[in-house]
Amino acid sequence: MTLAEVLGVSTGVTSVIGSGGKTSLLAALARELPGTVVLTTTTHILPFAGVPLVTSADADDVRAALAESRVVCVGSQAEKDGKLVTPKLGMDVLAELADHVLVEADGSRRLPLKAHAPWEPVIPACSGRTVIVFGASGLGHPVRDVVHRPELFCELVGCAPDDSATPELVARAANAEALADVALVNQADAAPEAARDLAALLATPAYVGSVRAGTITLP
Fold it and tell me: What is the pLDDT of residue 120?
């Protein structure tokens, strides 16, 4: 089965949240999904290598880009860092233009784990599926070193910043937030046993694997 099939990604808008491989998952899904695909964000992302970029607010420009390339990235150009921010076109409009709209709906500052602030994630109202990603490379390391928003994580689960980010604590935080329909514990090659433990403790259906290696299994 493909990643899309395992994670239940179908036509329409799909949001990807969490940490430890969101961008890699979005790129992998875009490669394997049939039909046209728009990659975009409700926060900020870097443009995808080798993918045509549309920064226009004109739907006809997106339509023309999709006629030339099956996958395009759509966003507004930020003033610094070369990043893209939320496109001026609404997600519902993008969903009318492409078979699939894949949305990166929060940030993690390249850390493998995170807790969510009250305003996160920014999931479009028309999103039909939300996938949360966890980076297993952070498991077993101090919370302060591997968790984005460690103070929120500690408050949520009752630990200290120097405590280890165990599968039990990470699952407790995720289950308390209850933000997604399905979970992927990515980077499993970094900590295979801990990755399986985390997936087994999550309240949502969860899978274990490595997006980069193209492997995904049940815990």
Answer: 96
